[in-house]
Specification:
Blueprint lengths: L28 E12 L2 H10 L2 E2 L2 E2 H14 L1 H4 L10 E8 L4 E12 L4 H19 L7 E11 L5 E2 L6 H4 L1
Antiparallel strand pairs: 1-5, 1-6, 2-3, 4-5, 6-7
Helix pairs in contact: 2-4
Length: about 170
């Protein structure tokens, strides 16, 4: 007796076993994705970063996070088991320090391929946020990373653009 794959779960075969999606029959198109992560810094850390030009004893925090985010996006297939290896054509990480100790990290990724780059954008944003944490933890461990989410994607079967705040159903 074979079990049925749940609809919409493309990484399961007809026996509900994990599998990599075969993208061979898909069209090559330009695929883009934008993801973000938020880092909430305690007031003392946010003030120290502002005064220092975003530097700690470990070096330039935001510059290092940008490099780490790009490196992570390029290596997503090594971290997420069923991601296809992609030769990214574009990857950028922007970091903005906002009021109230919030730091917004955004990662945009693009490639011409048969599969999307959502995971690469999400990985880039997340690792950049983790790098900010790592470089600031000597000042405080009360740093929070949250709001990791896909903002938009294009170029595949379904385009996506997040509009407005999260709905209650999305929050679980």
């Amino acid at each position: 007796m074979t079990s049925r794959t749940l609809p919409g779960l493309s990484h399961l075969d007809d026996r509900n076993r994990p599998t990599m999606v075969d993208v061979g029959a898909k069209d090559i198109t330009r695929r883009e994705a934008l993801a973000e992560a938020r880092v909430l810094l305690p007031r003392v850390v946010a003030s120290a970063l502002q005064r220092s030009g975003h530097r700690t004893e470990k070096g330039p925090v935001f510059d290092t996070a940008i490099i780490a985010g790009v490196m992570a996006a390029k290596r997503t297939h090594e971290l997420i088991p069923f991601c296809h290896p992609l030769g990214l054509e574009h990857c950028s990480v922007q970091i903005e320090q906002r009021r109230g100790g919030e730091v917004l990290v955004r990662c945009r990724v693009a490639v011409h391929h048969r599969t999307g780059v959502e995971m690469e954008a999400l990985t880039g944003a997340t690792v950049a946020a983790l790098t900010i944490y790592d470089m600031c933890k000597a000042l405080s461990h009360d740093i929070e990373i949250s709001g990791v989410r896909l903002l938009e994607k294009s170029g595949g079967k379904r385009a996506y653009r997040r509009t407005g705040p999260r709905r209650a159903a999305e929050e679980g």
